[in-house]
Amino acid sequence: MDCQPIVDKTYKKVLAMENSGNVASYIPELAKVDDTKFGVCLTTQNGEVFTAGDATVKFSIQSIAKVLSLSLVLSKIGDDLWKRMDFEPSGTAFNSLVQLESENGIPRNPLINAGAIVVCDIICELFDNPKKALLDYVREVSGIEDLQYSENIAHSEQQTGYRNFALANFIKSFNNIKNTCDQVTDLYFYLCSIEMTCEQLSYTFGFLANRGKQFNTGKTIVTPNQAKRINAIMQTCGFYDEAGEFAYKVGLPGKSGVGGGMVAILPGSYAIAVWSPKLNKQGNSYRGMKFLQYFTDETQDTVF
Amino acid sequence: MDCQPIVDKTYKKVLAMENSGNVASYIPELAKVDDTKFGVCLTTQNGEVFTAGDATVKFSIQSIAKVLSLSLVLSKIGDDLWKRMDFEPSGTAFNSLVQLESENGIPRNPLINAGAIVVCDIICELFDNPKKALLDYVREVSGIEDLQYSENIAHSEQQTGYRNFALANFIKSFNNIKNTCDQVTDLYFYLCSIEMTCEQLSYTFGFLANRGKQFNTGKTIVTPNQAKRINAIMQTCGFYDEAGEFAYKVGLPGKSGVGGGMVAILPGSYAIAVWSPKLNKQGNSYRGMKFLQYFTDETQDTVF
Amino acid sequence: MDCQPIVDKTYKKVLAMENSGNVASYIPELAKVDDTKFGVCLTTQNGEVFTAGDATVKFSIQSIAKVLSLSLVLSKIGDDLWKRMDFEPSGTAFNSLVQLESENGIPRNPLINAGAIVVCDIICELFDNPKKALLDYVREVSGIEDLQYSENIAHSEQQTGYRNFALANFIKSFNNIKNTCDQVTDLYFYLCSIEMTCEQLSYTFGFLANRGKQFNTGKTIVTPNQAKRINAIMQTCGFYDEAGEFAYKVGLPGKSGVGGGMVAILPGSYAIAVWSPKLNKQGNSYRGMKFLQYFTDETQDTVF
Amino acid sequence: MDCQPIVDKTYKKVLAMENSGNVASYIPELAKVDDTKFGVCLTTQNGEVFTAGDATVKFSIQSIAKVLSLSLVLSKIGDDLWKRMDFEPSGTAFNSLVQLESENGIPRNPLINAGAIVVCDIICELFDNPKKALLDYVREVSGIEDLQYSENIAHSEQQTGYRNFALANFIKSFNNIKNTCDQVTDLYFYLCSIEMTCEQLSYTFGFLANRGKQFNTGKTIVTPNQAKRINAIMQTCGFYDEAGEFAYKVGLPGKSGVGGGMVAILPGSYAIAVWSPKLNKQGNSYRGMKFLQYFTDETQDTVF
């Protein structure tokens, strides 16, 4: 099916609206991004690619990368992961410490900071050189052979990452982190530093729309069951305090990042990435939400 | 497609397992139910019906009815509903008052008690005889012309409903209930008293698998968009503290009740109801969870 | 010792300051009070009385009366009271439901609403006519033979008492209320409706400065140990979110009410009552706090 | 007055009871202490000293030292301290992070871990060599010229201090810590490592019973007002979750530590230290609580 007309039409519609919200400013690298950037890319199981705007400009995917660390760990240790964390919506802010206190250091799910930090701890347990292993994995899944961490962003995160250091130490006080907090947060900050374009991001997430197999190559990234489960987690936990809002308005599993990126997938069909740096109050891309809402209203695509 | 073999096979598999958990005992009417009962019914968009076990025995659908009060109100006032409540997962127990305190009497979603109570308040605002209006609506959607509230159950609920009275009064202290608390909780207790069989329940929920149109008659119950949105809410909020678990293991939108009933839908295809009174620790039917997990593993049905 | 000069001096000092804050407005009876009223009365163990301003004008003592319901129950059942509630500071708002949820319906202390409601439940258990029994008790302790409840205030409270109904029902859901919620809240609203003048209030609280014996008559109201303990509870829990502030700045045990009344005692010496209707953000009398702070700075009176 | 007979009698009474509870075991240095140790020392304003049992054996005073860091900072910057923290009871565990999250990194009071960490940050701001400055101060107040930090205990604390690192980083994420978290927690761990005997501890706290002036020397440690206020804070916040219990049963301001030490003061009269390593469920010395309760019952000493 030719999605280009709907992509174009929706892109124009959102472009014509006020570009509300604020760029994430907690680290300089994110604050200095051009806030008029706006890109879209939809990649289908059949290899079609539909783009609009700044679809080939790199941006910091931030928390979107937590889906990739999750898929790496899930493919390695399977359901043993759930001895270390849960997969329930948190109902609280992404960096909250409150629930950890009453739930003894067991994060609610792998997509909030606490959970992603424990996932990083597991990666540190699994690999001698965890930073390299993670990068190799993301290169493989994304097909970007020369992908690098952004040292600038990783260092910036590290310099102001008190909340994440607090999370790591808090979890370790409950004995749910095995390596040193420095090792674990180091990997975590590098994970969050990954940059991709919309084109690359939609291709990367293709395996979740394809029962675990990479688009084009058909290579197995995760089992069909694991793909289903990652999608279920994205649906219930992928959008911070707006998981319900996104399920309600878009109706597709997906994940967002504070860099203004957003990715969603229609199982059996496509992955779509949107990027626009200004965030709404819940920390999700303002234009990204609008685009995906209008786009799925138009196409009637939904898992529900 | 002939689902009967898989229904039968899964039924036998679960029947052979230990029947764990406990029957809800907070009211005598629920406590005295036969805990060996176990019924299943799957009804398809094409009118096929596949059953197993006690599929034609009536049981108290309890909180499952909250989806019907939601659909009634949504069909009447549309998105105005969201001025009175949110549609986010709560991350806390179904009858918790904690979030209401910090969120000024705005319930997290219409499927927890607090939200369903506000939905009942809206029904009291919309109709002169709200109890009759709600019953008429459920009769219409279910096609059960002689459906009655269970006076026994409603009275029992009323006699021990301190937590729900507390919720109603608490919400009213924030001015988010317009009628008297007695009127509202009265309707609420009657809503929870509705009884159906698995056959009736799966037919009733058919409209959510059919873009808002009733199975067989094709009558519009809600708009396609509203059907999508109700499904999204069921997916993220339908299973108390196990919303993530259900999304992860079953992968279909659905709703459970403390009577041991459970209903799930595959959009564009079918609705399935399971009933077995013993509940797991999270308050969902122990066998219901097992059945739906094994059944969807077998059929590979999932929205993800 | 002649306290009159310091009372006068402090009274003038506070009178000259801006009269900040807001009169409690949640019921009309409190809202319509003259907010320029300002009275003080200090009564000593030796029978001396020092007053300033509107010391003989009646006002609604509101939550200050919770000390009297506590002393009644403590004198009747002693430490058995603590099977039903705790005596720790709450760290949360006076009408919060949050802690009750995690602490299974056991109020933190008898001076927050939840605790006072359970105290009222106990009074309902102890007496055939609890409303009369409580009134008789307050008449005895205060020496005001013709004291009456204020029907106006009690009715007003009842009409808008949703939060207190919520508390009562919530506690009853944990089985920590034995009578009906209506009986208990009825008594509670009458308790809060009592009116006294500063002169009467300071005399009434004299027994807590006198090892449990009424000023003048020497009649035993509570044992010395119970007097000590009530004072300890007032010190740690008597001023809502400002218990620490009051201990820090005034350094005497005491209790405040949203009617703008405030009473404090110096063990072995005197009781002092202040009344001024405008409340600070924490719900304590703005001028009352100022007066007691300056007065004790001047006299160097403190328990610490 | 000769207190020796009552000290002896009470000591024997408590010694004859079961020695319940558990020694703190989170660091080896505390775990290996002899749990039968039991010492008492009461030092009066007039220079009298009454002891019983192991009154001259050194033990880790742990959190009791937080009163000394508080008095140091209060004597240096006065009420400016309260821009950085509050002085209200917390109502939660001593090492809780929950309140910090909703209260934006402002600790509830200087005697819980969070508050003591901010006090340490202020000491780091005030002095070039904060560790030496603090030690010099404690030497001066205690009169122990050769007092040393216990390197063993400080290192042990550091090795397992994840919860405290979490607190420091969390507070820093709210910008309420100015130095590095490592500097601040380092000082904090040394603060907690101080050791004294009961004799030394009761003398050290004498200034709080003496309007801010050191026993014997009469040297001013803090102003009378500051002494009053420190006592008020100890009364409302000095005993973790048992502040109310201690106020109720003992009725004196005081502070406890997980080393099993406990100190209390009667303003204008004496300071008393008790040590017995086994802790009750709230983390206060089991025998310490018993001793002070029985002792004050006997002497009728109380601030209330």
From TrEMBL, chains A, B, C, D:
Name this protein carries in UniProt: Glutaminase
Binding residues annotated for substrate, in chain numbering: S63, N113, E157, N164, Y188, Y240, V258
Assembly, per entry: Homotetramer.
Highest rank taxon of the organism: Bacteria
Enzyme class, first EC level, given as a word: hydrolase
Any GO molecular function: glutaminase activity
Any matching Pfam family: Glutaminase
Organism in which the protein naturally occurs: Dokdonia genika
Annotated catalysed reactions: L-glutamine + H2O = L-glutamate + NH4(+)
Alphabetically ordered keywords of this record: Acetylation, Hydrolase
Its EC number(s): 3.5.1.2
Alphabetized InterPro entries for the sequence: Beta-lactam/transpept-like, Glutaminase
Family: Belongs to the glutaminase family.
